[in-house]
Specification:
By secondary structure, the chain is of the alpha/beta class. The chain has helices spanning about 5-10, 30-40, 60-65, 80-85, 100-110, 175; strands spanning about 1-5, 20, 45-50, 70-75, 90-95, 115, 130-135, 135-140, 145-160, 165, 180-190, 210-215.
Length: about 220
């Protein structure tokens, strides 16, 4: 784990990459890194996230600035601009049931070939997907999700990179930390090694490549 600036972090994110971004309606989203993506106009991105937040917050800023070519999310209901771009054919949107999305990310991190879920059977969600029947019940085979870079947010870390999240701001962040080739975390503070009890660690530092501190440019 290495502590770097936001400007250094942004050099790892290239146009056309697939990136995972933690957060739920902007809570638990690395806002500082997103602001740098917008500032540097890094575009043609495929973003995997729970949602696209709102136009003025989190991933919504990437949508408003038209930096995404595709999003894989569980819903877009809180961002009218995402809806407009989708209807206009300016943005590809893949909607995935929230639990299925989480498990697909988990499968990507665990090296699994996919997951079986009954969610979506008999709906448009099953279109184009393999249906597997087990003991008389139908399941959809959902493929794993992985990314070039995961951008996550934590409340604090120690100098080994061990992370602690702030309550529900944890959301998708731990899963995404396991499912990308490179992981950059934005933290509110860095504390000495030993200041975080082992049983408080939610994401071990071995998964973290780089750390940036929120508010420090």
């Amino acid at each position: 784990m290495k502590v770097i600036t936001h400007d250094e972090a942004i050099k790892f994110i290239k146009p056309g990459m697939t990136i995972m971004i933690g957060g739920f309606l902007g809570v638990g989203t690395p806002e500082g890194i997103i602001d740098k993506i917008v500032e540097n106009r890094i575009d043609n991105l495929t973003v995997i996230a729970n949602d696209t937040a709102t136009p003025e917050r989190g991933i919504g800023k990437l949508i408003v600035n038209k930096l995404c070519k595709k999003v894989i999310v569980s819903h877009i209901g809180t961002n009218p601009e995402t809806q407009r771009q989708m209807i206009a054919g300016e943005l590809e949107v893949e909607l995935v049931p929230q639990g299925t999305l989480a498990e697909r990310v988990r499968a990507g991190g665990a090296g699994l070939g996919g997951i079986l879920t009954p969610t979506g059977v008999g709906t448009i969600v099953e279109n184009g997907k393999q249906i597997i029947e087990i003991e008389g019940k139908k399941y959809l085979l959902e493929l794993p999700l992985k990314a070039d870079v995961a951008l996550i947010k934590a409340k604090k870390c120690d100098y080994y990179g061990n992370l602690v999240y702030n309550f529900t701001a944890e959301n998708f962040n731990p899963l995404m930390a396991m499912a990308a080739e490179l992981v950059i975390v934005e933290v509110e503070e860095i504390v000495p090694v030993g200041a975080i009890a082992p049983n408080e660690v939610r994401t071990p530092g071995v998964l973290i490549d780089y750390v940036v501190v929120a508010g420090v440019k």
